[in-house]
Amino acid sequence: MAMPIFRRIPRKLEEILGDNGTNEFVDFFNDSFAANEENIVELVSNRFDNRLSEELNTFRSEYKTDLADLRAEFKSDLAALRTEVKEDIAELRAEVKEDIAELRAELKEDIAELRAELKEDIAELRAELKGDIEELRTEMNEKISELRTELKGDIAELRIEIHKLISAQTRWMLGAIIALTGIFSIIVKL
């Protein structure tokens, strides 16, 4: 229930209206103001709803505009970022290609140096091997000469011994033949 707006009215009016009239007059005002209060609340509520709708529409419109601006700005920033990233990637590719080219050049130089060193080492090794082979040949030829000389001496000694043995054998054979001839002549004479 609504709270009464008027509780008391001025005294002169109260004297004119009397107690009953005063109560009825106060009730009338209170009922009128209560009815008006509902109308005023409804009117204020409608005005508030309308104002709120207008503010919301304005806010939505501003929000949509701001969102569209933000999207456009974001797209622009994103496009700029893409461009920057593409440029950075292109620069990085160029740097990597340069680094690879430099590395290839360095590797080629190192390989060429290594080949030259290997050729020198191989040439030195060949020269050393040729020297060692020559020394070995010389040593082998000396050894072969020594062996030939020793073999010649041994063969000469062996020939001398063979000749001595043959001569001794021949003497024995001649002695045996002479002895057998003598024995045979003795046997024949007998």
TrEMBL record:
Look up keyword Transmembrane helix and say if it applies: yes
- Is Ribosomal protein among this UniProt entry's keywords? no
| Protein name (record) | DUF1640 domain-containing protein
Q: What is its main location?
A: membrane
Q: Where are the transmembrane segments?
A: 172-188
Signal peptide (from-to): none
**What UniProt keywords are attached to this protein's entry?**
Coiled coil, Membrane, Transmembrane, Transmembrane helix
From which residue to which does any coiled coil extend?
75-161
Q: Which NCBIfam families match?
A: LA_3696_Nterm (NF047472)
Q: Which superkingdom, per the lineage?
A: Bacteria
Compartments where located: Membrane
Q: Which GO terms describe its cellular component?
A: membrane
